[in-house]
Design goal:
single chain; about 550 residues; alpha/beta; nine-stranded mixed sheet; five-stranded parallel sheet; 13 helices; 20 strands; disordered N terminus
């Protein structure tokens, strides 16, 4: 039988039926391991209810039941009742999932005439809810074939090790954290979304193309150590100097309300004279930085940050943090900003993956239907929805590949160690043109980043509140390519052909750089230049209501 949609499938051949008794013994042994895991989890979560937990866990051991249909569980950050969960993108992501399931069933893509169904779970963007749902998942009498999720990294970090022990295949459509690349900690974790380190690399390559060999990088307190380590190694490899490296003020509290922390970071940025700023933080923290920057009157900075922020992330009332902080101010502070993210759409003329041989639907058709469905549901479409659809398709391809290896349906309902190994090998060798670009993984399944999708990063730029794709960064060639007819733009009329300097003008001693006039000026009457601070500070007798707020001297820092 010919394998559909998966190239270069690896793995061992299927164990014959005569070995079924051996497999059943392995299943019983595996259930014991899962039982012990559940008891430990439940014990740690609530000693008061331990007796009840034991009863529930024993039900798993003696009454494990599985659905005969091909079902996937989809864990989304819907964040019902908690819009500030961190990344409430689940409803937008679900658009891609629903349309791909409909497409697969309409095309009759699955072997044996199977239909695909899904079970949607709202895990928020929470690690604790991820663990809670994992327990419910393993206690379920009808356990799905696999898990598409989590949508957020903090959830996947907790869930992936549990799914590995339980031998449940897992493909995340939204978890981008660099720490998940660790194959020792997450040996069976795969993701259809481009990981964060590829986005970071795209930001650096973009800055380098402008001739900017210096920049400033700021973080929030949730930024992983692995991301910081990657940033350090990347800047070293690219000969880029981070002017804020090692400075504690470059880290802002992740709550989104740390105005003082944002002020401290902005002070460091302005003092560094860097024009380009890489911001590795959640959108709430990024929004606070922009708010405070607009109050400081710092202008002309070019930010580069994540492109997976929720649509409309800047359109939040920030006047509680300053009566001068308006929506216009936030948008103006991010004008000409860059965002790196997974490619939203492949070549629109390509066929939709997971189609039958007679299928005629194109990526353009899927895009049109996605936008229409989002509008009809009244939800903001999330660009990563195409990656979510690709995760569903990847599971469908893997199912067909397992059937082609002569696995019976019951063999796929509770995977033996051999079957799980075969399925992971199929994942590893997956290669297809997805809705969100090419989908492929490193050849070596044991190496660092083996579960990371190698694909294309889109580089978007926002100009006058309109965000559009300007170029792409190829994860295979590590090169940036500009889209036809597109180029980067900069403040004050600079262009990609004639970019501004990576550093603002250095002023003579006793003067400061005024961003509003793009010139060096002396300190005002209410301030005095302080050499050790490298800035104009309030004179004695004047009240400083904010780090940059002192009479008319807001935002003036010596350059």
């Amino acid at each position: 039988m010919t394998t559909r949609g998966v190239q270069g499938l690896g793995g061992s051949s299927h164990i014959p039926a005569t070995s079924r008794h051996g497999e059943q013994h392995q299943h019983r042994h595996h259930r014991c391991r899962v039982l012990l895991l559940l008891l430990l989890l439940l014990r740690s979560s609530s000693s008061k209810n331990f007796a009840t937990s034991v009863s529930l866990a024993l039900q798993v051991f003696f009454h494990f039941q599985f659905s005969s249909a091909l079902e996937l569980s989809v864990w989304q950050p819907i964040c019902a009742g908690d819009p500030d969960c961190g990344w409430a993108a689940g409803l937008g992501l679900q658009i891609g999932v629903d349309l791909m399931v409909e497409h697969i069933n309409r095309e009759g893509f699955l072997s044996r005439g199977e239909n695909l169904s899904i079970r949607v779970v709202d895990t928020g963007c929470s690690s604790s809810r991820g663990v809670e749902e994992s327990v419910s998942f393993l206690l379920s009498e009808d356990r799905p074939f696999g898990l598409v999720g989590c949508g957020c990294s903090r959830c996947s970090v907790q869930v992936a090790p549990l799914m590995d022990i339980a031998r449940i295949p897992m493909i995340s459509h939204g978890s981008t954290a660099t720490s998940l690349s660790d194959r020792e900690a997450y040996p069976s974790f795969f993701r259809s979304i481009i990981p964060d380190h590829a986005n970071i690399e795209a930001m650096v390559i973009a800055f380098k193309s402008f001739g900017w060999m210096c920049c400033a990088c700021i973080f929030d307190t949730t930024t992983e150590d692995t991301q910081k380590e990657f940033w350090l190694s990347l800047t070293k490899a690219q000969n880029i100097t981070d002017l804020l490296a090692g400075k504690s003020g470059a880290v802002i509290d992740d709550g989104g309300d740390d105005a003082d922390g944002a002020d401290a970071a902005i002070q460091l940025i302005l003092t560094s004279r860097a024009r380009g700023v890489v911001a590795l933080m959640w959108e709430a923290v990024m929004r606070m930085v922009l708010c405070r920057l607009s109050v400081s009157e710092g202008q002309g900075l070019v930010f580069a940050t994540w492109g997976w922020f929720v649509a409309g992330w800047m359109d939040v009332d920030m006047t509680a943090y300053s009566d001068k902080c308006s929506l216009d101010g936030v948008h103006n502070a991010f004008n000409y900003g860059l965002q790196a993210t997974a490619l939203a759409w492949n070549d629109l003329t390509l066929p939709v993956p997971c189609s039958s041989e007679e299928g005629t639907a194109t990526v353009a058709d899927f895009k049109r239907d996605s936008l229409a469905l989002a509008a009809s549901r009244g939800v903001a479409y999330q660009s990563d929805a195409s990656a979510a659809a690709d995760a569903i398709c990847m599971f469908a391809m893997a199912f067909n590949a397992m059937v082609d290896k002569n696995y019976a349906t019951e063999d796929l309902e509770e995977l033996s160690e051999a079957a799980f190994s075969d399925l992971l090998a199929i994942f590893q060798s997956t290669s297809f043109e997805g809705l969100s670009g090419s989908v492929a993984f490193p050849k070596n399944g044991a190496t660092y980043g083996a579960g990371d999708r190698i694909g294309t990063v889109a580089i978007n730029q926002t100009v006058d509140r309109v965000s559009s794709q300007v170029g792409t960064f190829d994860g295979h060639t590590l090169e940036m390519t500009m889209d036809p007819g597109k180029s980067f733009l900069f403040p004050d009329g600079y262009t990609q052909a004639n970019p501004p300097s990576g550093l603002f003008e250095k002023c003579d001693s006793g003067k400061v750089y005024d961003y509003s006039s793009n010139s060096c000026v002396g300190c005002s009457d209410t301030t005095i230049y302080v050499d050790c601070a490298d800035a104009c500070l309030c004179r004695a007798g004047y009240f400083q209501s904010g780090r940059f707020e002192c009479g008319v001297t807001t935002g003036m820092v010596k350059k």
